[in-house]
Please model this.
Amino acid sequence: MSTAKYKRKLVFYMLLFCVVGFLNLFFLSDGKDITPIIIMVVMLFFIVYSSILVRKLFPDGDMYIYIFSCILCIIGIMLLYRLDMLNRYLVSINSGDLTNYGLKQLIWFAIGTTCYILTVILLPNIKKFKSLRYIYLIITVVLISLPSFFGEEIFGAKNWIVIKGFSFQPSEFAKLTLVFYLASALKEYKKSKDLIEPAIVVMICLFFMVAQKDLGSALIFFGISLTMLYISTNKIKYILTCIVLFLLGGYGSYVKFYHVKMRVLVWLNPFAYASDSGYQIIQSLIAISEGGLFGKGLGFGHPEYIPVNASDFIFSVLCEDMGIVMGFAVLIIYFLLFYRCMRVGVYVKDNFSRMVAVGYSAMIACQVLVIVGGVTKLVPLTGITLPLISYGGSSMLTTFFALGIIQKVSEEEKN
Model:
């Protein structure tokens, strides 16, 4: 089977999965709620239209990147609307506020898809942006420091900016500029002294994030920096040095900051804090175990007992409704997405473009590993989103922009 036919077949199965999933939600409401049908039609339109547009205008790029990202978005919006249906039922028998996670995420998906297409079509060659090193540096530091002075604390972390009811995380956008900065700073690495400035910038970013209790973003920034450092220098000694310094900094944060210490203690023994700090992780583990291998069925679990189920713990909702097998399937899709993105970085000739592709690939991979590891108690729990699946506009936009950049680099690879 040719590559083009295989891609078309994969797109067909993706669209079929979308139809089956939202029809399931439609029948779950006994046919009284047509919103799942509307969401399904809108998603099918955006996916088909954008796939055809990108394939026609830029046939040399890696279309698998967009296909895998759309599969994840379908799963995410499906789960979020399932939560909305549950919430409406709970509000009908109790008091509470209605949520519209599914519809809002659909809007963010449409905006993110548009951002992806515009990035691929309108953005000039990525190599033209390699000389803006200090502009990236200033933007990164400003974005990272903003919550420390103007931020509001939400879910225990002071990493949100709220303006007239609209909230966003500056760290989500700082990840994008950090990658461009490091790519510009490391593209022509020759001596050890070339690493001094990037190391200082990364340490400043980590300090602000720890002070803001944004431990998840700190781990992601460290993972991005470590990956790009290794690709640039190819020297294990630098990686080992960074790991040792990170461990020393982590121990210092454990001693200095109470919230860091509590995260570690809860990770080691959540049941000792079952009524307080350990409640979230315990409910997450219970939900995953209740789902078993194949889940209770979409709409038959009890995600109302899982805290922050639309964002931080949506992987637990997925495992309870669809099973651990589906959870592993989602992780495999993330791995395939990571592989295709890293493949672009491996084959592109320009060093700056390579570093950008590697940095954004590492950003997505680190985010998945940190949040999935957190909700399954493999690593200390941190409050970040699961890319393209969790509810969140900032995360959706930054992920699609990063994927659009990688798609653009894959076009450069062929030219």
